[in-house]
Batch of 3 targets.
Target 1
Amino acid sequence: MKFRTSCGHSLTVRRRTASRLVTRDFYTPAKSLNLSAFTENIQSTFFVAHALSKLDFGQKAVTAMWETMSAPDDPSKRALETALFGRFHHQPIICEASSKWYGKALIKLSDDLRNPQAVWSTSVLRSAIILTMYELIVATSSHGWIHHAGAISRLLEVRGPYRHQSFEERLLLEAARPLIIARAAVEAKRSFLERPDWLQIPWALDPDEKSLRDKLVDLSCLVPGLIEDRRDLARRKRNVAVLLANQCSWDDHWKQVGRYRCIASALVLRCDKLLKDVRAWKEIWDEQSNPITLFTLPSGASSSPDYPEDLFGPPTSFHNLYEANHFSMYYQVLTSLLRLTYECHYEASPTASDMTTCTIDRSLHLKPGVELPPTDHDDLLVERRKCAIQVCRSVPYHLSSELHGCGGVYVIMLPLLMARPIFRPQAEEAKYIDRVLAHLAGIWGNQTPQWFG
């Protein structure tokens, strides 16, 4: 008994002492604990989990390529991941850190561009693409992303289409094409991407690798050229009107009018053909994807402001965000093309091309909410309005953070910005879009992207 009692008492004391030591040493966090070593991994994991992986349902294995192609210490990669993390969590210190990484990335890119050997590497092109995406996330002005997209355009054009036949090089081309097209459309200048060699050669060795999304991007490559030709047509019309105002002979006037009508009619035919091809793409996509028409928001998921189902109809859902991205891209292309086709039809009509009344450019540079002049093709405007409604129907799905993190925000942002001017400022549809944009501004630190000035 004495032995057991004495031994038991001794053991009990030791066990309690060990328990107190474990609690003090391992479960009480130190006040000076520094977690900076884990910051990079947290931000990278957040970017992949909440943005990139939500779009990774195709053949491209985007997530794996992001992790393998980008070096961990790449400042452009760190800038993008840090910016997304800081903006989403409203952390000014982290956002400031992303700016510092951005500055380092600019210096490195500038040095690489001056290096005759490094300028041809994929890392230079990849950094330029990542920095353009960074500008789209930060979006403090409408100039940054356009500047970087211009650099990407020049790098690709110099490299040529044959260099992008390997899987890695082609993936970079596919990532860069939408950025180059957007810049070309904003500046109303055609892009080299519309040339047949750039539409065919990169996929010539692996034609099955050209996805349905790639084929839609092929069609969108033709839009900036049509916009440029539309602008040139307007310039030609002004010149003819000035010629008439200077009291030139009627023979010279009607020669100019006849030439103008020929050019306008040819442009109309090109717009109509592209519009037909885009609609045909949608028919194929509908057969393959078959989007769900009813959408129930998961419990606890944050979404947009109250969706007015009586105004737009039931919200649209999709199998995944990858398909939703196809949907959004299609309506971006179709919305731009419908407006462009309508304007070309108007300019080619006898009323617009008569020019004896000197009514110049009635359909150009209209401000949001201003109606276009009536023509025999008002069905194009009706379809354009239906496009905007379809975009609004997809908002609840895109903004469900439980389904796809913050990836849906950037998928739906541009279609919303394009749909907003279609409605009158005081229309209920426009008010809903304004509420959604204000909601998104709150998510991203009370700042709406200024992509187009």
Target 2
Amino acid sequence: MAAQLKAPNAKENWPVHKKTCSSIKKKSNNDPIPCVMLGAQAGGPSAYRKTTIPSNDDIFNQAPAPISQRFGFPLILRRTKPASQYSTRSANDDNPHATWLMIDPGHGFAPPEWQSGVGDVLVVRADRKPLDIATLAMITDYVSDILDAFGDGMEGDEVARKYYRKERLVTASNGRISTQD
């Protein structure tokens, strides 16, 4: 009786295959990731600027902004200077769009430290995918709609039912954001 041949086990072959597999993209620990700087603007909306950060930046150790988690597109924000470095808080350091992104999804208010004197803020996607200006602008417009709902007297649970679904964000973005993002 002839010996039966056993098919190779994928797990056993992985260490050898891994070295030559062309479908694995080698990513260094500091590959640049496109993101957006929200610049403070005296008396006006925040200024958006393209920038990059290394993929191993410690910003990715921070928790995402609660409102962005609620509607399914987690963003992480970091001030470029801690609030303590501003000798005096002024309107020149206000950053309304950063403040909007830090609102509490239950009542629509940002924590006090995010309400004034915020300064410039770096915004990245928590999943380390690229973030462009147009996408972030669309998201801040969406958060503006949420703030309007709170301002119109909607309660937190009503706002949650209406806005805190990724499908709603996808629709509002006119296809710019998909359910796969």
Target 3
Amino acid sequence: MAAMNQSTVLQETIPPAYNENVDRMRLEEYPTLRDTVYLDHASTTPYPKSLIERFSNDLTQSLFGNPHSTSASSQLSTRRIEDVRLRALRFFNADPDHYDLVFVANATAGIKLVAECFREQPAGFWFGYHRDAHTSLVGAREHAVEHRCFGHDVEVEDWMQDLKMVQTSWSEARLGLYGYPAQSNLNGRRLPLSWPGLLRSTCSSRNRIYSLLDAAALVSTSALDLNDPSQAPDFTVLSFYKIFGFPDLGALIIRKDSSTPLRCRRYFGGGTVEMVTCTDESWHVRKQNNLHEQLEDGTLPIHSILALDSAFDVHARLFGSLNQVSAHTMFLASRLHRSLSYLRHANGSLVCALYKDAQSSYDEPRTQGPIVALNLRSSRGEWISNAEVEKLAAIRNIQFRSGGLCNPGGVAASLDLAPWEMKRNFSAGQRCGNENDILGRKPTGVIRLSLGATNNTEDITAFVRFVEEFF
């Protein structure tokens, strides 16, 4: 019965949400995907051929100089960079009257920049983060005077309700920063986007707690609407290569009314100051026109920003909007999850241990993104090494990611790993990327299947057939 149900899922009628153009465009636009099942879009998505061609044509048609000059080529670069900055804000429905955008290397660089600015506060800062946070967000705690990890959504919401009492317990006026992911990069569960607005409404002016949203995983396949500044995060970080595949570029989007803590940074780089003295007196004046001028140190990655302009055009032509990408990928994720959940061994035992939050549903994009996290068991109930699964997948040209996925809290919760067990595993030789992935009769990581705009139903069928064939 289980096998029949699984087969039925794979043969379901394709709904309108599925983008059938993907089947036609892959050969022309994504030749690198030929004969490959790529299920690692949460790491980065493949780039289309026409994006590289369009960008190359842009570079060969114009001379772009360093923007820190008054030459014609420099001024052309300056104009193009500012045009792309505004276009990037519009992509997230962010009004430039209320937001500024700082170009950074990636989401991690954006998090690091915010944390370093908060570190400069006279009384330091308090940092809170969610269990599902990416390692890069967890790392900000090392700059904080105090920090706290929230283990559950209810814990976060209870804390927000009691926030005024928490703040009055602090001995001095200290800023706070609460960071969390819009979507878990481990299992795709989506966290409430209402928290920044709720946090802002409950904070006092003396002990203000700001919000930092890691939107990198979310925006890879879904739209982020920053239309309402009163409800938006104070700081939002993301990586454009997770959306477009290229360029390797990120952004920190800043709510202008929340910019004060970022103006306290002591370090200054080239292009961020109006004048500096060095010999008899140490004195400098920062640029004051726009916040991004104070935070973008040195020469910007000119060509990567120009490539982003081409990426916006090509993505819209190929896929329409991120809302359309979301509908497409969520259909595929739902089919994949259900198909895997039906798989049974001959003795009736489950093949896949699937990790999904109890409150999440693949039929509700507000709660779940297009990621399926799992481990495999043998017919005797023993865990199968993820390293072995990857080796066998390579035979069928199937690519995905496995391990801790830079999500220490999420993997610990999914696998019921206590801190002492993780320390024991480290002492036993477990390291990121090695094959020592079953210790103490527990897996140390998971298999992550993350879907993107270029996936199709054949990819889903191929992975399910692969599990049937080998396990």
